[in-house]
Amino acid sequence: MAPKSKAPEKKQQSLTNFFQPKTVNGLAAAFQKSQSEARTSPPESPDSSRKRPLEEDTDRGNNGPDKTIKRAKGEKGDKADAADQGKSSFFTPGAKPAAESEPKSKASAASSRTGRFAYSQASDVNEEEDEEDQDPSTKQRKEELHKKFVKKLGHPDSMLWRRRRQDDNEAADEEEGEGEEDEDEAPPPPKAKKGGARANKKLTPMEIQFLDIKRKHLDTVLIVEVGYKFRFFGEDARIAAKELSIVCIPGKFRYDEHPSEAHLEKFASASIPVHRLPVHAKRLVAAGHKVGVVRQIETAALKKAGDNRNAPFVRKLTNVYTKGTYIDENGELETGGDGGAPSGGYLLCITETPTKGQGTDEKVDVGIVAVQPTTGDIIYDTFEDGFMRSEIETRLLHISPCEFVIVGDLTKGSDKLIQHLSGSSTNVFGDRSRVERVPRTKTMAAEAYSHVTQFYADKLQQTPDADASALLERILHLPEPVTICLSAMISHLKEYGLEHVFDLTKNFTSFSARQHMLLNGTTLEALEVYRNATDHSERGSLFWALDKTTTRFGQRLLRKWVGRPLLDVARLEERVAAVQELVDEQSSAKVDRLETLLAGTKTDLERSLIRIYYGKCTRPELLSVLQTLQRIAMQYPTVKSAEATGFTSPLIASAVLSLPQILDLVVSHLDKINPEAARKDDKYNFFRESEQTEDIEDHKMGIVSVEQSLDEHRADAAASLKRKKPVDYVTVSGIEFLIEVPNTDLKSVPASWIKISGTKKLSRFHTPAVVRLIAERDQHREALAAACDAAFSALLRTIADAYQPLRDAVSSLATLDCLLSLSRVAALPGYTKPTFLPSTTNKPTISIAQGRHPIAEHTLSDPYIPFTTTLASPSPLAHLITGPNMGGKSSFVRAVALLVLLAQIGSFVPADALSLTLTDAIHVRMGARDNLAAGESTFMVEVSETARILRAATPRSLVILDELGRGTSTHDGAAIAHAVLDHVVRENRCLTLFITHYQNLARLAEGIGEGLVKNVHMRFTATRRAGAGAEEGDVDADDDDAGADEEITFLYEVGEGVAHRSYGLNVARLARIPRKVIDVASQRSREMEQDVKVRRLKGTARLLTEVLGTNPDQLDHLISNVEQL
Fold it and tell me: pTM for the full model?
């Protein structure tokens, strides 16, 4: 009987296992056993025998196939254990005797069955006691299981993600249908894997080498050369997979041998082919990562002949790239996505020191140095900035850095500003900018001074000349914050091998050299100078409208011209005269010659030259650059003086004159080069035979000698094979100098010959002499490659010594490109030459006749309606502009500002006539935006910008204020607007355009007196929609019933006088606000207007009584009130 009762017991246990939560390594079994011990009722109870029929019912009830579930490790499956328990663990603790439970229905049986899984406090309360009750062998077994578990999974937390995999494994085991005996025995420990390194989880020599480099460069994504691939390891592989859309093979992501990854054997990895390295490196850099390339710095043949033939290849970090320092064989980084303006490619170093004040009175001293490694331009500046950090913002918007180096800690305001401007992918620079921080010590200033002095003193020793000494003197007298930044920048660029950009001291320029008008950040944004305000792309900006350049370096120069309008009348006149001459001569042979020259210049010469200077240029690119420069220089070979150029403008003549001066220099270098080999990037034949170095000739002779020996060896090989004529060599699968022997003649092959490959009919061999000679030839080849690279680097250094004259020629070419671009704009219909009035004899004046908006003209399908206006000192200094919403007020003031800007760039303007004195700045306050980064509300931003304008504006500035005061209550807003207008015209006395919807401000403006403020409005007509008589009108169309039922036609013309209504309801209707809402708004508007009129009428009546009675002096006031009514 015993065996029969045990079989169901086993099945029942297996069924319970199916319901219980599964874990790994036998923890479930241990957990179940402790629970069952806590729950068992007194032993040897007669209940257990009576419960057997229920088990049989259960088995019969489960009609599915009888699967055996593999039990977790360590679970006791012996029959003895079943007997010891005395009771199946399937039943709930404290179950009633069978005698009492017999009358119960099947439902109660089912509840007792599922009750096994109900929560019981017994196990929790007595947990510690249970542990003490367990025998020592059980405890020991549990400890062993726990150790195995930790060894396999690393940490209990990692059990969560492994659980599902374990379930799958167990399910698979069930289907294998293993016998019952397998369950009872614990499976044997896994056998050690072959290959000691992996079995003991040791790192390979190559991985150790990688980790050594990685620990020194934890912030860098390393691309490691391994054979014929470049590979990423660990976390770098995860980043590469995400950014490059390549496969990441799972493995260890961490570099610190963390226990959580102890079960993993090797690093996660991803790989890319060798020839795709520049493409993928560029994409990683563009995504904002710092990328390092680790190369094998020895070749296979030289390693074979060297001492370390059994060690891994020597690898070193050869290149490090970031956004600001990416200069490589494949050209510059194309920054800026589809939605952003391209950043300038500048690397900007900034440091600041708080000087005085707290809160809104805070002042900081700031120093900046910005370097554009791709062109060699260096900008420096030092300035004091206030609470709004407007000066920093202005410089950042002008320079558009793609990378920041921050020295020391910035104040909270500056840090937030930089994070805000650089942190988002839709920022003002068009792309996410990289930020790197450098600590600042207390003695930084002294250290920086000695570091910069040492750096330039070493350079001066190498090339002593008078100019260099003068420039060194200038650099050593730079302000302290700039010196700190310069020192930090030299140290930073040393890592990228670009520190010698600072040798080009001719390119040092101060940002705020006052020969340029400085457009602040708000003005650049409001006037859409570099990018439009809608989608922040270049299309629809002023730069887009002017950019008709044909070369990349010309486009960059034009961008600088647009952002820095001139303040020097002589230079402006010179530039405008050059544009005028090009327009007048636009179809002549000499202008066509210039245009053909520029159109044929496809190479970005400015960036190619700087790459030659850094020694990063490829052979085909060098040939292309030198040939392009030769073609440019040969356009004017006979020009020896300015008169010979054929141009009267000194600006064009001097630019053309500088081109042929580089001819001899370029030809001397081209004479050394073999053009066919250079085009194919053939390093071995790059130099013409007469120009090759001794090393190159020696190694070439060595290779010829080896090949001669190989040819002679054919006869020896034939003798060994007992043939009369010399054997022929064959090449199969890239393996050279193979000797083919038919399989029938194999008996004559010497045993020393090495079989390489074969087919059914023949075998291919290398003789020992061939093996030796091939190795010798490979060594010569690799030494030759090194000699060719060295000779090429020497050539690049020679050209780099003549960098300045070549760069000057390219700058002249860029100037010609910009002038031709401006002349193409000037040739458009309706563009005229501006007239500059001398500032010494004239008061500030801007007079525009039939002016048009330079950007809207290009983007609108309908013609732009022109305007005529004059601002002059002493009167009218300001225009107070009113008009309906959408009537064209903002467009009008922007057009005035853009025309002034265009004139001071040196361009023609879209107007019948424009005469002006030069303005030293354009200050614009437009639009409503908050600044969450600085915790400032919309109105706070509005008044802060206004405060800055009031402090900065001079009598020669142009100020534009759009709807000042709209961000607060009507009374406060109107009061602030009036006070600001009064201050601008009385105190600052600058030319002002002031837009407002406060009609009563117009009356107050007249009270300012002296004709300082003139009221103008945007004209319109108001027509009753209901049909009954069209109320055609201008300003006066403000009928009592005006509102929702009026059709407003905007005339977009500027007229004198005040528009007494803004017709906001008309715009609401155009915006499709529900009719019901508009009707209610119309009613409320009429009521409020009526109240205002009644109050005004009462006031006028009181005033009339006073005038007729006691106070006749109020007569003017009375007349003004009557006019208003």
Answer: 0.65
